[in-house]
Prior knowledge:
Layout lengths: L17 H7 L2 H4 L3 H17 L5 H20 L11 H13 L12 H37 L4 E6 L2 E7 H26 L1 E2 L15 H8 L3 E2 L3 H6 L2 H28 L6 E2 L18 H24 L14 H21 L4 E2 L1 H9 L5 H10 L4 H18 L8 H5 L9 H4 L2 H7 L8 H16 L3
Amino acid sequence: MQRLKKPWAGRFKEKTRESVESFTESISFDRRLSRYDIEGSIAHAKMLGKTGIIPIDESKRIIQGLKDIGEEIKAGRFKFMTELEDIHMNIESELTRKIGTVGEKLHTGRSRNDQIALDMRLYLRAETKKITALLRGFQKTLLFMAETHITTIMPGYTHLQRAQPVLLSHHLLAYVEMLKRDIARLSDCLKRINILPLGSCAMAGTSLPIDRQYTARLLGFERVSQNSIDAVSDRDFLIEFIFCLSIIMMHLSRMAEELTLWAGEEFSFIELPDAFSTGSSIMPQKKNPDVPELIRGKTGRVFGSLISLLTMMKGIPLSYNRDMQEDKPPVFDSIDTVKASLFVLNEMLPEIRFNRERMLKAVTRSYSTATDMTEYLVRKGMPFRKAHAITGKLVLYAIKKEKNLDELSLGEIKRFSALIEKDIYPVLTPEGSIKAKVSEGGTSPVEVRRQIRRLRRQIKAGR
């Protein structure tokens, strides 16, 4: 049995058809906002009592009733009703059933339009902090791995071809830097999330003497929205938030792609832990990298959510329109996807076994120290372009001879330039190449250790 008439029933002669109720309801997904709807309603009730819009004793009864409902929802005893459409009416209806007609005063000075905008901002504020914590935890995992592999050499790639020797730790720190920017984006986005829309009502504000600044202080908002139409009719803060999540997933997807490649026999750089892999239903020998592959696939869902929100908003005239009910499923799904991906990656990465011998061998057989020879000639006074051309000819010669650069005799090398002496050989080894990269942000062990210390300090300081 329906506990409360539709809040707008006075205008209508006919009841809403069941098909319409089923089509227009949002309680099936916006129930996850219950905590924030109650939190916002408690603050609103306090404000109504403080300003004298309703008596203080009624304000207290409303607040206690809301707290009781919150406990029921938390315990799983609350019955959500589809015919009450959304989380707002489900809670308000139960409040009125509990405390009588006093509960009907809660909606004074607000609308479901500014109420849902408030709920989403409270929800995003909380989720931003949770995702930021997961990102920092992932950074710490990568830093620990970087310290573990401070002497592990691997080929760095451009165009998916072996380019120059780098430390595995240096490669891992690249992702730490990406995550650092992801955190910064979320932090900046939070400035535009943390604005109180409540008090904008349907779209024009109210004639009642509400105190929006007081409500903002109660809820921890830094600012109050300054245009009631804008406050209820835009969702750019959601779009920006999903954009931030999309970049996070893009970074995770790139890592997932590398893990998938490295786990294949053609690379054999890593061995994925059995607990994070699956097998084939027909091929007994298979060990599939399903976790990174699924992260790669789930990235498309988050990108799709961003496009969904942009498409939903692009043609909506001011102010509120029911289309905006459809903003929540993509937001919820994106948050769940990002959190799950970060969690499982953070669990899996420390258990990956790196094949150091295989990675070093890949560096050794790839002429990846050719740039070091070029820079050697530059240090001897040769113009860079000329040094580049001479090294290119030397590489071509070595390929024909089926030798590495450091396997060529000094006589062979000097045929290409008289400037070359015995001191060229340390330059041509992967170890020598890496040791020489002492420029700030380079891959030398000294510089990588300095970067690890810097990043640890920044993470500890919350930067």
